[in-house]
């Protein structure tokens, strides 16, 4: 069954578009539209997967952020303090003069983990967030 295609406009910074075009070429897409559709499907799948995170979970949240962004380091620390019942430890790495990486290791309720992840994603100056989670070993 053929679906009707809708045309949309998207504004992107040049460096992001150049990176996207490079990926499109490497992966052999016939057009930007094909690459964008694939990226949107991946984004939707990720959010559906996030909806299934429940019960006790263990894992990590990795984030990269611009520590020169005013107030961001404090906002990240505040978010972690709000979830001290989940967070077992974190590792902080200086990547270069502007960027830091934080790896947060957690064990706790999946719904609360999703909220922590979403709080971190929403902070201005956070460039990358990746949640990796699984049920604890006794459930595998």
From TrEMBL:
Keywords: DNA-binding, Metal-binding, Nickel, Transcription, Transcription regulation. This is Putative nickel-responsive regulator. GO terms for biological process: response to nickel cation. It comes from the Archaea. Gene3D superfamilies: ACT-like. Chain A, domain 2, Met repressor-like. Binds 1 nickel ion per subunit. SUPFAM superfamilies: ACT-like, Ribbon-helix-helix. Transcriptional regulator. CDD domains: RHH_NikR_HicB-like (cd22231). Transmembrane segments: none annotated. GO terms for molecular function: DNA binding; DNA-binding transcription factor activity; nickel cation binding. The keyword Cell membrane does not apply. The gene is nikR. It comes from Methanohalophilus halophilus.
